[in-house]
Amino acid sequence: MLLPETLDVIGAFEQARFPEQRDIGLVGVGLAVSSTEILIGVVLLVLAKPIVAYRFRTIARILAPPAIAATIALVPVYLFGRVTGPIAGFATPTALALLVLQSVIFVMCYFIALSILDYRLVASLIAKLRARI
């Protein structure tokens, strides 16, 4: 359960980012939700520090490779989007195919980058997937 103080911090952050209500579109909503979730995670990590003994360096070491890999994977997807143009301008079947293609490109680039940055994490994921199949 989120503490009221936490919700006040999140509300203040939202007001600081979007002081005037403007049409930010679907991408803007996605960015707002993502940045809010990241902020909530950071606040909850800080609140949990006195209860659960951990070091910020350890958390950063664990979270850095996936974050860096995601950033690297965004580059080809962004470039692909620049080449194809806005997906909203295509017919529905074509738009869906482009979305699937962008998702496949992102996942492939993400796992390639993550396997370079932290091979043990990818190997662990593959082993867990194999155990389930």
Notes on the structure:
- The protein is globular, with a radius of gyration of 19 Å.
- It has helices at 4-17, 25-48, 56-84, 92-117, 119-132.
- The longest helix has 29 residues, at 56-84.
- Helix content is 80%, strand content 0%.
- It has five helices and no strands.
- It folds into two domains: 1-54; 55-133, no CATH class.
- The protein has 133 residues and is mostly helical.
- α3 (56-84) packs antiparallel against α4 (92-117).
- The relative contact order is 0.07.
Number of domains: 2
Largest β-sheet summary: none
Backbone structural class = mainly alpha
Radius of gyration: 19 Å
What overall geometry do the principal axes of the alpha carbons give? globular
Distance between the termini: 35 Å
Topology pattern, helix = H, strand = E: HHHHH
Number of helices: 5
Strand segment count = 0
Helix content range? over 70%
β-sheet strand percentage:
under 5%
What is the average of the pLDDT values? 84
Low-confidence stretches: none
Which key terms come to mind for this protein?
2 domains, globular, 80% helix, mainly alpha, 5 helices
Secondary structure: elements and pairs:
Elements (H helix, E strand, L loop, with lengths): L3 H14 L7 H24 L7 H29 L7 H26 L1 H14 L1
